Structure formats: C-alpha cells, structure tokens
C-alpha cells in the first residue's frame, strides 16, 4: 500500500464535542455537490472619503463607546450599531402565546472598527495592533457582562467579505450581547461537561494533546492494508508559545481553523497581556496562511468563551475558550440546509498540510 496519492474520502465524521454538528467529508471530484463562492475583490484603499468608519468621518457614526489608544488618535473605535438587531430600550415583554414562545429582543449590538486603515486585512495588521484588538474584545465583553445581569452571552465576531455577511467594506468586528446563550455554545458547554464528568479531563485539552502527541495507523481487518494513518502534528496549522491553530478532523467548512490556548483556560476574559501577544502572532500567521492558500478569502470568525452566570462549577474545568475561523468558499446547498449535515469537499488532512506548508516571512 503506497501513501502517495491520497484516496478520495467519503465518510461522515462525528464532531467529538457537538455530534449534531457532524460533517460529510466527500472529496472525489465527481461527488462535489457544491458551488464555489468566488473570492470577492478586496477594497484595499487606505482611506475612503465617504466611508463612515474612516478617520475624519467620526461624526458620521453613531455615538462612540470607546477608542484605543485614545479618541483623538484612535486605531480601534467601538460605536453603537446604526441598525442594531437587538436593543436595550424597553419593549413589551408579554408576547408569548401558545406555541409562539418569544423572548424580548433585549441586548446590545455594537460595531468595533478594527483599524483606522479602510481596507487592511487581518494578516496585514501588526502584531501589537492585533493584541490591542483582542484586548479591546476582552474589555468590552467584560464591561457588557458587568453592565446588566440580564445579558447571558456576549458574542464577538467578524464578517469579512459580502459572502460572509459584511455590509460595510471598512474592516470591522461586531459585539452582540444577548439574553440567551446561543444553542451551539450551550451544546459545547453541556457536552464538554459530560466528557469531563466521565474522564476528568477537558475535551478541548484532549484534542490538543491528540494533535500534538498522537500517532496511529488503522489497518484493514481482512487485507491488512493501511486504512488511515494519523501522524503527529497532522492537524496543526500554527503553533505559538501559548496558542495553537488546529484544523478540526470533523470540520464543516473546507478551510475552517480553530485557535485555542495551549494551557487550559475557560474564559476569554482571563487572557493576560502575554497571552494577547502570542494570540496576535498565531492569529496573524494563521490568517496569512489562509490568505496565501485561498487568495482573499471571505470569512467569519467568532469567539466561544464560557457564558457568564450559568451556575456551573465544573465548567471552569470542562470548558475551554476558542476562536473559530470559517472561510466561506462554497454556498450551502439544499441538502445541507435541509439535513443539517454539512458537506466538506477538501479532506481536513489535505487542508491542514496546505496551510502548514505555506512559507511565511
Ligand atoms: Zn473606511
Ligand atoms: Zn482545556
Ligand atoms: Zn466553538
């Protein structure tokens, strides 16, 4: 059995943390059921006269909430969202009838202008700037959690490119604070807690351990041929002193990468200055790898951290915060939307290798 040309993969891979988020990995050419999402041309201009997020147009945005390092020479600026999907004004809370259960759309929706340069990409930002940006995420999450006990979750995310839902070209992230814990976060919290009860070990730490220390060969029972080979570091895309970027074995998106702290940490609010410096480095290098392989990818990223006020003592030990980066290279099909089973047409092993072997300066 040779190891050269990889055999096409066609298998359903079970997400070890959230089994309902499993994926069909189908890599044979003829099997590809998906339509590719073309990379969008990127607006690389440094300054745009009419852009409300550009320097000099501060009067065009809703009121400012915070600026870094200062309002008069800002590099990062947090403002209220002009079209918030959730608001903290008083609404009628009594809207439930029969099976039509509702929760008041209470919350906060804010925009974080990531950089004063209009068209700069994440991998083009300096590492000190990225450390400042992730520090700003942390500070704002902290402030929102403290501001009102009705807020159960603060989600920080970024949409980049029209296919990823970005409506303004100027680089920005968003912060949404909600009165409910999102289902996918709740599923991660519940399932990782169940794993911890059974194994007294964090499942995310186990995944990191497997990526760094695991080697295995699975043979065919009848013929003795090699069915699968798992090599040390096969799923590792980037590694820093404190953070690791991993290509999940059961990735729903072709180029999905997760960044996790190497040492167990449940809550993103605990990241230190040293953590932020290393996170910035791992983030910049991971995004540069994605850019080199995909050429101007449209993507989302979002932070999953332990929800506050969930009355769960074990969750400090069982949950592990992480950043999920999901490039949008294909449009979901009816099969995917109807079944909830995502189709990934690039074997995660192949994707990880391509990303890892990019030569960075
Ligand atoms: Zn701009
Ligand atoms: Zn852990
Ligand atoms: Zn997650």
What does this structure look like?
- It contains seven helices and 17 strands.
- It is α+β, with helices and mostly antiparallel strands and 361 residues long.
- Strands 4-5-6-8-7-14-15-13-12-11 form a ten-stranded antiparallel β-sheet, with helices on both faces. Strands 1-2-17 form a three-stranded mixed β-sheet.
- Helix 1 (127-147) crosses helix 4.
Mean pLDDT score, rounded? 90
Largest sheet: 10 strands, antiparallel
Number of strands: 17
Give the radius of gyration.
21 Å
- What is the first-to-last residue Cα distance? 37 Å
**Ranges with pLDDT <50 over ≥5 residues?**
none
Helical content class: 10-25%
CATH architecture of the largest domain: 2-Layer Sandwich
Fill in the CATH topology of the largest domain. HIT family, subunit A
CATH superfamily of the largest domain: HIT-like
Which percent range describes the beta-strand content?
Answer: 15-25%
How would you write the strand order of the largest sheet? 4-5-6-8-7-14-15-13-12-11
**What is the number of helices?**
7
CATH top-level class of the largest domain? Alpha Beta
Structural class: alpha+beta
Order of helices and strands: EEEEEEHEEHHEEEEEHEHEEHEH
Tags for this entry?
361 residues; alpha+beta; HIT family, subunit A; 2 domains; ten-stranded antiparallel sheet; 7 helices; 17 strands; 25% helix; 22% strand; globular; binds zinc ion
SSE blueprint:
Blueprint: E1 10-13, E2 23-26, E3 35-36, E4 64-68, E5 76-80, E6 108-113, H1 127-147, E7 153-160, E8 172-178, H2 183-199, H3 203-213, E9 216-219, E10 226-230, E11 236-239, E12 243-246, E13 257-261, H4 273-294, E14 299-304, H5 315-318, E15 322-327, E16 330-331, H6 334-339, E17 342-344, H7 348-356
Parallel strand pairs: 2-17
Antiparallel strand pairs: 1-2, 3-16, 4-5, 5-6, 6-8, 7-8, 7-14, 9-10, 11-12, 12-13, 13-15, 14-15
Helix pairs in contact: 1-4
Bound molecules: zinc ion (3 copies).
Pfam families: GalP_UDP_transf
Cofactor: Zn(2+)
Binding site for Zn(2+): 51, 54, 118, 170
């Amino acid at each position: 059995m040779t190891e050269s040309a990889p055999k096409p993969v066609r298998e359903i891979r079970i997400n070890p943390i959230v089994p309902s988020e499993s994926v069909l990995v189908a890599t044979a050419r003829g099997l590809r059921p998906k339509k590719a999402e073309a990379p969008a041309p990127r607006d690389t201009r440094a300054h745009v006269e009419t852009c409300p997020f550009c320097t000099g147009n501060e009067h065009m945005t809703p009121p400012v909430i915070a600026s870094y390092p200062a309002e008069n020479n800002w590099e990062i600026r947090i403002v209220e969202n002009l079209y918030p999907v959730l608001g903290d004004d008083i609404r009628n809370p009594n809207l439930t009838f029969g099976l039509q259960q509702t929760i008041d759309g209470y919350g906060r929706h804010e925009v974080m202008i990531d950089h004063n340069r209009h068209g700069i990409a994440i991998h083009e930002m300096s590492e000190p700037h990225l450390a400042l940006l992730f520090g700003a995420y942390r500070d704002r999450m902290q402030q929102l959690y403290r501001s009102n006990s009705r807020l159960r979750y603060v989600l920080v995310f970024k949409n980049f490119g029209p296919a990823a839902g970005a409506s303004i070209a100027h680089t920005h992230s968003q912060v949404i604070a909600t009165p409910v814990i999102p289902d996918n976060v709740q599923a991660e919290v519940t399932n990782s807690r169940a794993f911890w009860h059974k194994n007294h070990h964090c499942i995310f730490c186990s995944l990191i351990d497997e990526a760094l220390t695991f080697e295995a060969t699975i043979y065919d029972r009848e013929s003795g041929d090699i069915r699968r080979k798992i090599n040390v570091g096969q799923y590792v895309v980037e590694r820093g002193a404190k953070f690791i970027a991993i290509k999940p074995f059961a990735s729903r998106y072709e180029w999905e990468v997760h960044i996790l702290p190497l040492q167990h940490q449940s809550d993103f609010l605990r990241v230190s200055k040293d953590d932020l410096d290393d996170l910035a480095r791992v983030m910049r290098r991971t995004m540069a790898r994605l850019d080199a392989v995909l050429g101007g990818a449209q993507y989302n990223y979002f932070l999953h951290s332990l929800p506050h006020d969930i009355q769960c003592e074990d969750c400090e030990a069982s949950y592990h915060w992480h950043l999920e980066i999901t490039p949008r290279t294909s449009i979901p099909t009816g099969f995917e939307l109807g079944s909830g089973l995502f189709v990934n047409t690039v074997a995660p092993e192949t994707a990880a290798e391509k990303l890892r072997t990019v030569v960075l300066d």
